[in-house]
């Protein structure tokens, strides 16, 4: 019997794999060169990793980067099989052990397939750094990444015995959060250290563990140093306290009072607070404090504008005319309205309800806490619930499943971490010595980083920022939807690359602009103290 033509074979092959939810495959699985050609020509596959992997797509895609990011870890899992034995290495391995699954622009991997070191481009802007090293099975464990991708990763013991000073310095935050809570069995650690004796690095890690308050690990490592080296290594030679600086916030905290993710949050907020101070500090004292009547009048005047931009920024499709009518409480313009427009109208209406709630509560200067967050979240979706577009049951409490952000590198934390992280955010926001700009900017940034809900996080984050500004006597700030891409990129830089400067500069510019505009319309500003919120 004659074979079906290549097009028919290609479509059948594609359907079989997508029905089995296999969206990342090796090109070698194609039944023939002709079928592979059809798959590429019809846009049913996206070539990645130097054409060593395919991502199955429903047709030619406009945003290949978004498709690649959504399948990043499945691509890594497939490619690493080609270089087996292989394992994600060093600080990248530590991040995976800490359940940080945001795709890095460069991923370090040990591979035993050959003796060459080189970089493999996965997709423009992303690459795999392959370093030769013999890997024994006992040095590799499997971590389950998003999409149930099984990623081979260095074991904690193997990481400890192969880290170098440069890696520790550049990755001090994840390394500190990991080391601070690390518990290892002495026989396994001793066997690894004796097999790969590196007394200087082991001593360095022992000193670092001691600085972080992990005395059991510090003693284990110190004992092993004595076994493998007869030379006494002084603490000054480890680099700890000089080249390797333990974040101050961890020195002041009890090891038993937190978790790796709370430690990461504390270090992140400490670093970002320092950056706000560096970029904004000198100008804080000159900020005016406006009377509540002026702030409220300004915010009410801005309500329709802010509701339109904050809602359409999140992808809702609605015209300015319809959005403004919804804010004013007027009926929608006559004529048929499609489902998307109705959903957008409910989103605008919900934002308007939450906006009014912010104005009422900011006047009373209530703290930023779980009750406030949940109340604003309920207000944000109240009209959609009333219209039966959204199920009220889905709005109770924090999200309980993992979530991805299409087109962006950042992967929000596992839902089990959310209560702890929200608690950390509450404590940060409640600090009496926190200046109002730092509070507003970092409450916003940290809230969207925690991403505690399945939907509405961006809108709610901006509402919380403005709540903090109003409570501090500063005007409402609107982020326009036509600035969506640079704004979201600035957030991503802070979340994934640890660089909050673009986000701080972006929002600080808007705050200064809003202050100048309101000051030009108001004749009763009062001087303010930097230390008061």
Kindly describe this structure.
- The protein is of the alpha+beta class and about 525 residues long.
- The chain folds into 3 domains: about 5-60, no CATH class; about 80-245, no CATH class; about 260-525, Fido-like domain (Fic-like fold, Orthogonal Bundle), CATH 1.10.3290.
- Helix content is about 55%, strand content about 10%.
- The protein has a 4-stranded mixed beta sheet with strand order 4-5-7-6. A 3-stranded antiparallel beta sheet has the order 1-3-2, with helices on one face. Strands 8-9 form a two-stranded antiparallel sheet.
- Strand 6 and strand 7 (about 125-130) form a beta hairpin.
- The protein starts with 5 loop residues before the first helix and ends in a 6-residue tail after the last strand.
CATH hierarchy, class of the largest domain: Mainly Alpha
In CATH terms, the superfamily of the largest domain is Fido-like domain
Treating each run of at least 4 consecutive H or I residues as one helix, how many helices? 22
Strand order of the largest sheet: 4-5-7-6
> Largest sheet at a glance?
4 strands, mixed
Number of domains: 3
Unreliable residue stretches:
234-241, 527-533
The CATH topology of the largest domain is given as Fic-like fold
Second CATH tier, the architecture of the largest domain: Orthogonal Bundle
Q: Distance N terminus to C terminus?
A: 81 Å
Percent strand equals 5-15%
Please identify the structural class as seen in this structure.
alpha+beta
Radius of gyration: 27 Å
Work out the oligomeric state of the chains in this entry: single chain
Large-scale geometry: flat
The helicity comes to: 40-55%
Q: Report the strand count.
A: 11
Mean pLDDT: 91
